[in-house]
Amino acid sequence: MTQSQPRFKALGRFSLNVVSIAAIALGIFLRIINLGSREYWYDEALSIVFVSGQRNVYSNPGEVPVNLDSYTALLHIPPGSGLSEMAANLANVLRGITNNQHAPLFYLFHNFWMRLFGNSEIAMRSLVVLMSIAAIASVYGLGRKLLGHRGGLIVAALLATNPFYLAQSLHFRMHGALPFWAALSGWAMLNLTGRKNLSSEVTNRDVSALSPRRSLYAELAWSAILIGSVTAGLLTNYLFSYWALSLAVLSLYLDRRRWFLHGVRLALAGALTVPWILWGVRQQLRNARFVLDQFGANEGESVALRHLQDVLTFFGTQFILGEWTSNLPPASVMVAGAIAIALFLAAIVHLWKVGLRQSFTVALLLSVLPLTLGIIVDSLTTKFTVGWGGGRAVLFILPGFLLLLAVWIERAAGRWRNLAASGLLVFFLTVGILDYTVRDRAMFHQVADAIASQPNTPTLIAMNSRAWGHVLRLAYYVPPTANVDLLARDPADLAPALEKVLNADNSPYSRILWLDAEKSVWSPNATPAQNQQVERLLDEAFCQTLSSCLSSETLQLSGTMELDEFNLQIYSR
User: Fold this and answer.
1) Cα 13 from Cα 168, distance rounded (Å)
2) Rounded to 5 degrees, what angle do the CA atoms 556, 559, 561 make?
3) DSSP letter string over 364-398?
4) What pLDDT digit, counting tens, does each position of 93-116 carry?
5) CA-to-CA distance for 107 and 52, rounded, in angstroms?
6) Which of 284, 310, 323, 565 could form a disulfide with 387 if both were Cys (CB 3.0 to 4.6 A apart)?
7) pLDDT at residue 552, rounded to an integer
8) Verdict on whether the full-model pTM lies above 0.85
9) Largest alpha-carbon pair distance within the chain?
């Protein structure tokens, strides 16, 4: 027993390390191979026009058709390579952001990235993927500081395979960068406050090996990393302030004697955001207040029930369903959320009974505390940000909850450690892999293919939505060499505008693609009566008799989200 038991334990440690490393590698591989596997979704198209600095040039489609190329040009940075042109373009990026609710850093980073690599899906998503890989490395450092090498590998593997984070890493949006800034700042804070005995496997050896001078250099380096990562997080998403406050509480718990020094570091990070707050946020509050209304309650809606739904959606999406929630009914998501909450509560109770106070408390302060702050702010402001988009706006909380799981697996699971860790990793990978193999998003490629079959035929796309995410995706995917105009109106206005086009003398269009959006976004969705009116006009214009109608094809277009649903009818003559 004395010989076999150590061998068994050593084999267990080795096998779990290997499983974790393999899971990390597979998580990175899935990100790389899926960079261009899906079309841009609605918000990604908006990001392109913000990054290009041409948000303020964009104008809504009018009552008469416009050449689609006029929108395609907005998806590229304007020509000009001099410093003055670059400075003017960056100024336009910042001005465009003031008409939205987001912080500026993501758009500024990607403006330089677009200059280098263009606006393809692979190019624009690659920077977010690189930041997600950096997040995996940083959360390993965070976990290693708290739990040792194996614990670091476990939490890194959980983040690498988490299906919701996998999807967010492959979105050209700012949310995928948040776990990186969170993990990096948390790692820095642990190094600045927990230098005595957070992980006996790592910290004691490392600290004793440092000379006083190297220790000073290390503290200065970690201070710079903390200040820089917190500043970057705040300038990526304003809700990152919940994480910054949690770091402040963490510093008080771990190193109360130096609270003032830690407070100065965090205050300096906040101070670096002041210029943007004074110039940009003030304009956003004036210009983009209508955007903030999307986070409010609907008329007649129970606020308390909506907050409960938000919390359940957060847990169900981030820990069980991933992006499958975009195609599932809310009830299913809330049931999944209840299951996830029950499992986390069981782990918390078990950890409390085991008595691992320090690592347990650190994990709670980096998970439950920022989530609680978000719920409190939402309750006081009657907003619903915690569950918005499955919780992507508060994705910086994800590393903390995965750290909590890793604490339980490493310190409390005992003989179930390998089974619990491997089972959770297999579950995460299964959900993520199925998401990117079973579900597809290629609606606008189908529209482009229909146009490419007759590229020189004068074509009009008639769409019952003016939503700029729909317009910009059309402009991105339809070949710029095709002879295509766009008539985009609200559902109630499409038939009258289309009638004028069809009745005009010498109407140039030999083909009309009627793109019926299931969700108009900016107006009430189309009613059956409105669609029947459009269909009647097109039948009269293109069909002399029912048997001779050359309406050649009807396609139902769908993707991974509600905003991807369209019906396409092609009329030719």
Assistant:
1) 31
2) 120
3) HHTTHHHHHHHHHHHHHHT---TTGGGTGGGGGGH
4) 999 999 888 999 999 999 999 999
5) 9
6) 310
7) 59
8) yes
9) 96
